[in-house]
Write a structure and sequence with these properties.
This protein is an alpha+beta fold. Helices cover about 50% and strands about 15% of the residues.
Length: about 850
């Protein structure tokens, strides 16, 4: 402090520095300690890295592995290197001073206040105003110094140790402490003093032991040297490893765990064995130990079948199973074998079957989670297997990681497969099954296939299927004559399968035929007791076929407006909603098992569809939509005609004539067209379709885009058919023409639905089926149907007293009309069904 002229003391920088030093004592000490650590680390990191490496090597027993001379040579070299590193560090290291710590701390503060407090005012000391400014500056610097915090040391050595050797040495030391034997480092100090040196030290008795459980258990390895309890439990299959050090015979091993003998003794320096039962383990000799080890058993997996095997509509099989294991299973298999004793050995199955290996399927395993206990479903499509729909036995097995296998009980069931409800398709599938059963059935299969194709008119509705069946029959006859090989049999079976699918699900040109086929298949399924999934699929097929048929009738009504005036006043009247209700009722009856009522309702629905007429509301004629529909219909008719000509040309190439059983010579040279003529007609149809694309309404809307997509597929298929015709591939052309017709039908169906929606939005009402009141549902005779869709009516249709005489008259009239062969075939067929029923 310094006195001014008025007698008051003035603070100087040194005074402020002394006051700040009392507050900076702790930060200054920590900064000095950090500076010391920083310099020591930079100077001595090579020395302590070498020391860590040496200690780790000795803790892991390098002295027991290396010969004495090598060990001492390595120890001397390592010690010399450590001394050099220590000398280099001492030369670079210098003790930090208080001034250096103060300077380090001052550099961390803004404005370096400690340096500022040590300064003196150089100019203006005689000016009172200047002195006041200086005093304020000193006080501000003192406040900054009082808020100082310790400076952090810079311990980074990456520039001095770019390969991180210090971290490698530190990691080795940590591992030596955790997993090695640090006490063995002390043994090295007495090696030279013992008789014999290192050899004598090595001869001192010691031991190590480990118990390693199997990896699949997830349990850690047990280090016996650190186990204090005398009783431990380990999983079955664990491996014991014991190492004995020192003179042979001083330490020994007794164990009753391996099962090799009642008491197995090991006097060698090492022992490895697997634990197979509970027992004892003892290290005998100086410093020995003993443990009672209990084995935790590993049970074999348990697998059971959960319920019977189920079948989906398309023949897909599904089998639920449950698995349980101690540590989880790794794999599983299902084994399916033919139950020959349960097979009905009739017809093609009367001969002995050819040997066939059991069917083995891999079971699905969970992709996530535990495999100790789970439930899964085996799903496979075995419809094409020779044992499909035949009695089989199924058993499941599961295997764990130890190799143990568990098996389920054997279950007897029918192997699920696809069921054919079309009689012709079922016959073809049965002949395929007989061929796969035994090649001895080939002559019988040929005879039956020849019989079913003898008179195909009215029986085989798909001409393509007929042609494929005839070709397959020729190959079958040739194979029988030459001796059928296994490869030929399998190829024929594949062809017959494709033919059966084509007949069952084939592409029919007529919507009426598709509807009739859907009705026939559903009736056959009801008679044969089909599964509920199959019933649901067939009902859905009936819905789609009925929708296509109604769209076709609507298109015919639009093309022939005068047909509206010719409708009979007593014609059947039903709306689309009522048809949907009848289908729902039909499905409900089948789900409840009331098959008789369902069959009656299906027959009534068949009669309704056969006698149905479509009438449209006002404003449904003319316009671009109607013109586009007519143009697409014309293109479809042309494509159908070309398809027929292509098929006939293919028949003539095979020498079959028409599918009526005519000889080869009929039509020779007169019905066959050149490939150029057919391809030119196909090109003309494609050009015609392109010219009609501009008339399609609804461009840019989702409905219009769907129509364009269908027509694009039709055009691509036409182009493929044209190329096939130019190349002489009539069979390939038939396939592409069928695709083109299906795409055209889909486009016309989408166009009809779009026009119907537009019409309904325009006049507030949709299409009506019939002309009378849409709230009534009548049968083909004009009667109101019974309640809840039942066949019959609640009306009294025969008022009067002599109802029995009137019934006799009606029955006689039906018989008279059914005998009149000049009546249309549709009417005669309807009359015959009425007579069969009543």
């Amino acid at each position: 402090m310094r006195e001014n002229p008025s007698g008051q003391s003035e603070p100087t920088g040194l005074d402020a520095l002394e006051r700040a030093a009392t507050r900076l004592r702790r930060p200054l000490r920590l900064t000095w300690a950090g500076l010391l650590a920083e310099r020591a680390t930079r100077a001595f990191w090579p020395a302590w890295s070498i020391a860590f490496l040496g200690l780790a090597a000795m803790a892991f027993g390098v002295q027991d592995v290396l010969p004495r001379d090598w060990f001492f040579g390595l120890a001397a070299a390592l010690g010399l290197l450590a001394l050099v590193a220590l000398a280099w560090g001492l030369r670079r290291f210098h003790w930090p001073s208080r001034a250096e710590a103060l300077d380090r701390l001052d550099r961390t503060l803004p404005g370096r206040p400690l340096t500022a407090l040590a300064d003196t005012q150089a100019i203006g000391a005689a000016d009172p105003a200047s002195k006041l400014v200086w005093q304020a500056h000193v006080l501000r610097m003192a406040d900054r110094a009082a808020a100082a915090r310790p400076a952090h040391p810079d311990l980074r050595l990456s520039s001095r140790d770019p390969y991180a050797l210090r971290y490698a040495a530190l990691l080795a030391a940590v591992m030596a402490v955790a997993f090695g034997a640090p006490t063995r480092v002390a043994e090295v100090a007495g090696i030279a003093a013992l008789p014999g040196g290192a050899d004598a030290a090595t001869a001192r008795p010691s031991w190590e032991g480990w118990v390693r459980p199997p990896a699949y258990t997830g349990r850690p390895t047990i280090y016996l040297n650190e186990v204090r309890d005398s009783a431990i439990s380990v999983p079955e299959g664990s491996v014991v490893t014991v190492r004995l050090y020192g003179e042979v015979g001083i330490l020994g091993l007794d164990e009753t765990l391996s099962g090799r003998a009642e008491l197995a003794e090991t006097d060698g320096p090492a022992a490895d064995f697997e634990i197979v039962r509970s027992g004892s383990l003892a290290i005998t000799g100086p410093g020995g130990r003993q443990w009672d080890i209990a084995v935790i058993g590993d049970d074999a997996p348990r697998i059971v079948l959960s319920g019977p095997m189920e079948r989906e509509a398309d023949g897909l099989m599904s089998q639920v199973f449950r698995v349980r294991d101690d540590y989880g299973v790794v794999a599983g298999q299902a084994r399916i074998e033919l139950d020959l004793d349960a097979v009905d050995r009739v017809h093609g199955l009367s001969v002995d079957p050819e040997p066939r290996e059991a069917l083995v399927l891999d079971l699905p395993m969970p992709m996530t989670g535990t495999r100790e206990e789970f439930t899964e479903t085996l799903i496979e499509n075995l419809s094409e297997h020779p044992w499909a729909n035949l009695p089989v036995t199924i058993s499941l097995s599961a295997e764990d990681a130890r190799g143990q296998t568990g098996e389920s009980d054997t279950q007897t069931t029918l192997l699920p497969g696809k069921r054919f409800f079309d009689p012709l398709a079922a016959a073809v599938a049965e002949m395929r099954r007989d061929l796969l059963w035994s090649r001895e059935t080939a002559p019988r299969a040929s005879q039956i296939l020849r019989a079913v194709t003898h008179l195909p008119e009215g029986f085989i509705r798909d001409e393509r299927a007929y042609l494929m069946l005839r070709v397959a029959l020729r190959r079958l006859d040739a194979a029988i004559a030459d001796g059928m090989s296994t490869e030929t049999r399998d190829e024929l079976a594949a062809e017959l399968w494709e033919i059966a699918l084509l007949i069952e699900q084939g592409d029919l040109d007529s919507a009426r035929e598709r509807l009739q086929r859907a009705q026939d298949r559903l009736s056959e399924a009801m008679r044969n007791g089909a599964d509920q999934s199959e019933i649901d699929e067939l009902v859905q097929e009936l819905r789609e076929a009925m929708r296509d048929y109604m769209n076709q009738l609507a298109q015919e009504a639009q093309r022939d407006p005068n047909r509206q005036e010719a409708l009979n006043e007593d014609s059947m009247e039903i709306t689309g909603d009522q048809l949907a209700e009848m289908l729902e009722r039909l499905q409900q009856l089948m789900e409840e098992g009331r098959m008789d009522e369902a069959a009656e309702l299906l027959e009534m629905l068949r009669q309704m569809m056969e006698n149905m007429q479509i009438a449209e509301g006002e404003g449904g004629q003319g316009g671009p939509g109607q013109q586009a529909m007519e143009g697409l219909a014309e293109t479809l008719r042309g494509q159908q005609g070309l398809n027929d000509d292509t098929f006939r040309d293919l028949q003539q190439q095979f020498g079959n004539g028409q599918p009526g059983g005519q000889g080869q010579g009929e039509g020779e040279g007169e019905g066959q067209q050149g490939q150029g003529g057919l391809s030119e007609r196909q090109q003309a149809l494609r050009d015609q379709l392109n010219s009609q694309r501009g008339n399609i309404p609804g461009r840019g809307t989702p409905e219009g885009d769907a129509i364009d997509e269908s027509l694009d597929r039709a055009e691509d298929a036409m182009e493929g058919a044209e190329q096939a015709l130019r190349g002489g591939d009539n069979a390939g052309a038939l396939d592409r023409q069928a695709e083109a017709m299906e795409a055209l039908r889909e486009g016309m169906r989408d166009l009809g639905e779009m026009m119907a929606e537009q019409q309904q939005q325009g006049n507030g009402q949709g299409e009506q089926i019939g002309r009378a009141d849409t709230d009534q549902m009548r049968d083909p005779l004009g009667r109101e149907s019974g309640a809840m869709g039942r066949v019959g009516t609640d009306e009294n249709m025969m008022p009067g007293e002599d109802v029995y005489r009137r019934a006799e008259e009606l029955l006689e009239e039906l018989r008279r009309r059914s005998g009149d062969q000049d009546r249309p075939e549709v009417e005669l067929d309807y009359l015959r069904r009425l007579l069969d029923r009543f």
